[in-house]
Amino acid sequence: MGKIGLTHARAGRTALARRAKAHSIETAFPGLARLPHVHSMGAMIFDPIWSQKRHASRESCELLHIIKGTVQIELPRGRLTGHPGDTLLIPTNTMHRDNFDTVSGLKVFLVHFVWAAEADYFAMVKPLSLPIASPRVAEDMARLFDRLAAGLDFGTEADHLLVCSQVHSILLMILREALRNTPPQKKKAYGERHRRLLMLRARQHLNEHFAEPFSLDQLARLLNVSPFYLSHVFSRESDFALFTYLTNLRMRRARELLQAGTGNVTEVAHAVGYEDEGYFSKVFRKYFGVPPRDLRD
Questions:
Q1: What is the DSSP letter of 55?
Q2: What CATH number is given for 30-182 in this structure?
Q3: How far apart (Å, rounded) are the C-alpha atoms in residues 93 and 192?
Q4: In the chain, which ranges are continuous DSSP H helix?
Q5: Which of 57, 77, 232, 239 is the most buried (most CB within 10 A)?
Q6: pLDDT value, residue 50
Q7: Smallest Cα–Cα separation from 38: which of 175, 171, 173?
């Protein structure tokens, strides 16, 4: 194979690796693909009172692009500094104080938004690490803020959708920079923590709702992941399948109810999530080696 062929092959492998990595992130965090909802936005000159008292943006995140002035934002666990051209983020309900020179003033473009993926996003993007954009990326984000400023007077649903899409692009550009700056070992450790937490959240939900009709798709939507990823992670972290865990819960509870004489077989079957008594009896016998009526006698 010639040099050109080798170059193309390497480029092809690199592209495939990037697509595979992007797909793994999308599979683990499908919420990141959803658009944030922008509540309000606009250029504003900060009131000096914000440098004197701690405050929090209730029920929304703050996305700040510094236009003029320098700000040092005090957060519960540290400080971040922003200069003209920098972009900063403050999570929902985070108490903070904006320290700036009240004589020269501070002008920012401020966006208030809510996002279903906020928790997953801020697990990877630490506000105290901002700003992190390279000069080229910072210029790209500045152009997006210019477009937002030009679209302030959005009156149609399409206008608002476009605004949300542009804010989404800015957030993902920040995420991309954060992932590029994260050491491989930290990425691995975060992935392990995320998988463990996901399994524990799934188990907690099943422990509390095992008697209700079960849908893997619904549980995955509740946990903001794909059904395939949830099933895979649960099996990997628990050493047994999600449906096996659910059956274990139901069978143990059914045995307790039958031994306590709480109800007949049909009532117990319904109490632990089975509509079909015959199927319940089949599963129970396979699980314990005896039919459920034997525990009633």
A1: B
A2: 2.60.120.280
A3: 27
A4: 3-28, 118-124, 135-150, 157-180, 184-209, 216-223, 227-238, 242-260, 265-271, 277-288, 292-296
A5: 57
A6: 82
A7: 171
Q: What is the pTM of this model?
A: 0.61
Of 79 and 152, the one with more pLDDT: 79
For residue range 97-120, what is the model confidence (pLDDT) as tens digits?
999 998 889 999 999 999 988 888
Domains in the chain: boundaries: 30-182, 184-297
Nearest residue to 41 via CA among 144, 129, 116? 144
Q: CA nearest 123: which of 78, 80, 91?
A: 91
| Rounded Cα distance, 139 and 257, in Å | 65
CA–CA gap between residue 116 and residue 244 (Å, rounded): 30
Omega into 131 within 30° of 0, i.e. cis? yes
Under the phi-then-psi rule, with left for phi > 0, alpha for psi from -120 to 50, and beta for the rest, what region is 213?
A: beta
Tokens read off for 180: 């590029």
Query: What strand order describes the sheet that includes 97-100?
Result: 78-82, 71-75, 97-100
Length of the chain: 297
d(CA 42, CA 109): 5
* Domain covering 184-297 in this structure, CATH number: 1.10.10.60
